[in-house]
Specification:
Length: 376
């Protein structure tokens, strides 16, 4: 846990982790909760309920700002459920707490046992009188032509969100570079803090699928996977990939590679190894007398390595992503046949609802959005 201060704005952030890992999945089990308390500004609710209720829209958006840069830094194979709690303890009305909360989450995660790969930090960039300002005050933001929220590591930008007043692309790139420099300085300071009081990372808790499984999945699904990824329609493509995944699991099961449980190999029955001693029992040749227990000699035959069905599904998804990326980078074609710079077909229709004051249907590829307007 950590408390980060900017002026008189104070944000507290803690990272908690479950004692036991969750079931393996392709989605890291992390949740973020951000709350701006009324007491932070010295106020109280004027209604019947005096405590904070459900999260406001702004607080949900800040949760996303925290989640987006942190999630890519989490290692694959780490399944311990992690919770990030971020509370605004004090707000001076001058320094915004959202960018402070992102940095506080990055510090708390770096100090914790969670084996994240890199440290993150967040800053806000404004532009006043054609000059970039890092973490401007609320008063300065009233005259700013740019409101750019950034988060990243010392070497890369992981999240950008904001708006501007018709700035050129060159100005935006300069703003990003300014933010990257500020983030790099913060990350270096965090690394120094971690060396002083950081906890040991749970690297041993990372459970990756065996490397041999990748080779088996690629050998079985290779050509069929390439053909399935070339299907243009989304739903038929998903059905083809799902059917191919089931085929891979079935073939590996028939070959004796897939186990329905999570064990990586066969376990001998304890009753077959250990027997209680009877009073009149005679020790036979080949047995070892260990007092009250007789241990039978166990054959040490090599067993074929078993993979869990969950690991097969995770590996199949990674292999599919690798093949799809290779197709886009090398072949310069997406699954629906478009090039990297080609947009999906766009279509708009107006007046589809006769009784509404205004209505429209917007279609882009296979995505449709309907809007309508009415008045009381």
């Amino acid at each position: 846990s950590v408390m980060v201060t900017d002026g008189e704005t104070i944000v507290y952030c803690s990272v908690c982790m479950a004692d036991t890992p969750s079931d393996p999945s392709d989605f890291f089990p992390m949740s973020v909760h951000y709350q701006e308390r009324l007491s932070a500004a010295g106020r109280t609710s004027g209604g019947f309920f005096k405590r904070e209720g459900r999260a406001k829209d702004h607080e949900v958006l800040v949760c996303r700002l925290i989640d987006r840069p942190l999630r890519p830094t989490m290692p694959k194979g780490f399944y311990y459920e992690t919770q990030i709690l971020s509370w605004v303890f004090s707000y001076d009305g001058i320094h915004s707490p959202d960018c402070v909360a992102v940095t506080a989450a990055g510090i708390a995660m770096a100090l914790s046992e969670v084996p994240n790969k890199q440290t993150i930090a967040g800053v806000r960039i404004g532009m006043i009188n054609d000059q970039f300002v890092v973490n401007p005050t609320t008063e300065q933001m009233e005259d700013s032509e740019l409101d750019l929220m950034m988060a990243g590591t010392d070497s890369a930008i992981l999240m950008i969100e904001g708006f501007c007043d018709f700035l050129t692309e060159e100005k935006l790139l300069q703003a990003v570079e300014t933010g990257q420099v500020a983030i790099r300085e913060i990350c270096k300071a965090i690394d120094v803090l971690v060396q002083t009081c950081g906890k040991k990372k749970m690297v041993e808790a990372i459970n990756l699928p065996p490397a041999e499984l990748y080779r088996h999945v690629e050998d079985i699904s290779g050509d069929e996977l390439v053909k399935a990824l070339q299907i243009k329609e989304k739903i038929p493509r998903r059905k083809a990939l799902s059917a191919l995944e089931e085929k891979v699991i079935m073939i590996l099961s028939e070959q004796g590679y897939v186990s329905k449980d999570e064990l990586s190999g066969p376990i001998e029955n304890l009753a077959d190894i250990v027997e209680e001693e009877d009073e009149d029992e005679v020790i036979e040749d080949g047995e070892v007398d260990e007092g009250d227990v007789h241990i039978k000699p166990v054959s040490r035959k090599p067993h074929r390595q078993l993979f869990s069905e969950v690991d097969v599904k995770l590996v199949f998804k990674e292999v599919s992503s690798k093949y799809l990326r290779r197709r886009i980078v090398e072949g310069e074609k997406r699954s629906d046949g478009r090039s990297a710079c080609e947009l999906r077909p766009i279509n708009s229709q107006c007046g589809i609802l006769p009784r509404a004051h205004g209505s429209a249907l917007f279609t882009r590829g296979e995505t449709q959005v309907r809007h309508w307007l009415w008045s009381l």
